Amino acid sequence: xxxxxxxxxxxxxxxxxxxxxGCNLIFAGTPWQPGDRxxxxxxxxxxxxxxxxxxxxxxxxxxxxxxxGLISPFTAGITVQDVLDLFExxxxxxxxxxxxxxxxxxxxxxxxxxxLPVEDLCALARAYGAYSIVDTxxxxxxxxxxxxxxxxxxxAGAGHKWLCGGPGTGILYIRNTGGNLPPFDLGNFFLYAxxxxxxxxxxxxxxSTWVQLRGENNRPALYAMTDALAFFExxxxxxxxxxxxxxxxxxxxxxxxxxPGSLWVEPRPAYxxxxxxxxxxxxxxxxxDAASYGxxxxxxxxxxxxLAAEDPKIYIRFVTWPSSTAAPGDDxxxxxxxxxxxxxxxxxxxxxxxxxxxxxxxxxxxTI
Length: 368
Hints:
By secondary structure, the chain is α/β, with parallel strands linked by helices. The protein has helices at 19-29, 46-59, 80-92, 118-127, 147-150, 197-201, 207-210, 219-235, 237-258, 293-308, 346-362, and strands spanning 13-16, 37-41, 62-66, 101-106, 131-136, 154-158, 170-174, 278-281, 317-321, 332-338. It is 36% helix and 14% strand. Strands 1-7-6-5-4-2-3 form a seven-stranded mixed β-sheet, with helices on both faces.
C-alpha cells in the first residue's frame, strides 16, 4: 500500500473504514484552538463539511469558504494559476498570534468530477505556513496518487469506490516524516491507554499501529481491498488512470456533440491538470436558472432511476450544488457518470450514451 502510493515510510499508511472515518480521525486528533483557520471550498462533501462545522462550533475555528461557483462551468480555458488565485488571498490573510492554518480540500469534487491541482495548492499552503488535509474519496483506484509529491499532511480516501475493495474500507495517510509535522494527538482515543502524553506530543508512534487499531476490524474486507490494489498494480495504476480518462473524454465528446455547452467540466487529456474519469453535465434548457432547478432536478433524478431499472442496469448519479456561496441553497444539478479504466469499455460508453439520449428525450423537457 505504501509503495503503491509512495509514502515515505510504510508506518504512515493507516487502513481505515472509509473516507469519512479517516477525516474524523484527522479532525479528532488535531488540537484545534480558537483563532485557527481552515481554508476550504464550497464544493466539499459532508465527510469534510461535518468535521469543519464541528471545529467551528466547538473549538472556535474560523472557516473560510472559497466560492467554486466562480469557475463553474469549468471550461478548457481555466488554468492552474486561476485556481491558485482563488485560494491565495484567504491563505495570505493575517492570523492571530499562535494560530494555525489548514487547507482542507477534496482531491476530486464529488459534485462535478473536477480534480483540483493538489500538488500546487499544498505547495501554496506551505508557503503561507498552512498544513493540508485532502479528501480523495474518488482517488484511490482512479488516480496515480503520490503522497510525497502531493505534499499534503493528511490524505483520507475510500477503498470501496474506484479501487473496488470491500465495503467499509479506506486508506488514511498521516505524514510522520520530514520537518514541520502538524500537531496531531493521535485521533484514536482507545490507544491513549497505552501511550504516554510525551509519546503522543512528540509523535513517537507509528500511525499504522496506533491510529489503525480501534477494536475489531473487518479483515476479509481489508484483504479484499489490498488484493484489489495488487491486481490494479499488475495492470498498472497509470494505465488504468489513462484509460479511465480516455473513456470519459469519449463520453464527453458524444455529450458535447449532442448537447453543445452542456458539460459542467470540459475534457482534459490524461495527466494534465484537472483531468478525471468522471463526467458531469446537464443537457436541459434553464440549467443556469435557479427557478428551473426543481423541475430539472426531478427530470435528472427520473432519468437516473429509469436507467437503474433497465436490464442491463446502468447506475449513474445525479448531484446538486449552489451556484455561489451567496445562494440560499442548491440551485444547480447535473448527471455524474463514472468510466472505470478496468471494468468499462468503449462499447459500454456507446450504450450508456444511447440510453441517456433516449431517457432524456422521454422527459419532454427542452434540451440545449
